[in-house]
Every structure is written in C-alpha cells, then in structure tokens.
Specification:
Layout (H helix, E strand, L loop, with lengths): L25 H6 L2 H29 L1 E2 L2 E2 L4 H29 L5 H26 L1 H5 L10
Antiparallel strand pairs: 1-2
Helix pairs in contact: 2-3, 2-4, 3-4
C-alpha cells in the first residue's frame, strides 16, 4: 500500500553547496522531473497489467470446467483479446514516449497522455484478469486484488 504525506521543514539551515538549484526555485526545479515521473508511473502500470494478464492466462489454461480448460471458452478468449489489445497499445505508447525522450522531443503533454492512458488501460486489464480468476483473484495465494489498488 502506498502511503503519501506532506513533509514541512521549518528553520532548516543549509550550506549553499548543498542546495539543489537556487533558493526559492525548488518547485520549478522539481517540475522539470515530472515528465520522467509520469513515464515511470506509466511503465509501472504496464508491468502491473502484464503480471495480471500472465497470471490469468496461466490460470485459464489450468482451470477445468465442463471438461475443458476455461481458456477455451469464447467469452474468456474475448477477454484475453481485449486485454492483449490494451497491453499492445500501452507498450506502443511507452515506446513512442521513450523514443521522444531519447531524442529530446517529448512534451509534458506526451508524458501526461502516456500516464493517463496506461493507468486506465491497466485498470481495465487487471479488472478483466480478476474476472477470469474469479474467487482465486481475491482469496488465492497470492491474492490479485491489491493489483487494483
């Protein structure tokens, strides 16, 4: 579980050599790193979605119902097709953002769109994977429900 909080420093003395940027410009200096943060969040979302997809695929090929693996059922296959489309779209968007970053042409808009799309797509992939996993997704070892958090 992520924990976030605000930290405030009052009356902190700092040598000039230890300052990051110039005095009074800290937020602007940190703001320059937001695009990298957005990209890293998008990468994390992709990894989470891929983990859920792979676990659900493994389970669907092992779980037998009505004499065959549930992965052979048409509705389950449709879920996997939609998950694969989302994953492929996420990967392509991440590759494009990485390429732009390497070439110095990435914009804040590019990074924000990548983060936004990957977050939503990851949620949809994990949700579909949870539906395939059924009760195992919530009560199994390990439970997959935290991936939705």
């Amino acid at each position: 579980m992520d924990s976030c909080c605000e930290i405030t420093f009052d009356d902190v003395e700092l040598d000039e050599k230890d300052m990051f940027g110039r005095e009074g410009n800290g937020f602007n200096r940190v703001k320059e790193e937001f695009d990298h943060e957005r990209f890293l969040v998008a990468l994390t979302n992709y990894g989470t979605a891929m983990c859920a997809f792979e676990d659900a695929a493994r389970y669907a090929n092992q779980r037998v119902q009505f004499g065959e693996a549930i992965g052979r059922f048409q509705l389950i296959q449709e879920k996997f097709a939609h998950m694969a489309i989302k994953l492929n779209s996420m990967k392509n968007m991440l590759y494009e953002a990485a390429w732009k970053a390497d070439n110095g042409t990435i914009t804040s808009g590019d990074a924000a769109m990548c983060k936004y799309f990957c977050a939503n797509a990851a949620f949809e992939v994990v949700d579909s994977a949870m539906q395939v996993l059924g009760g195992v997704g919530i009560a199994g070892q390990p439970p997959h429900q935290p991936l939705l958090a």
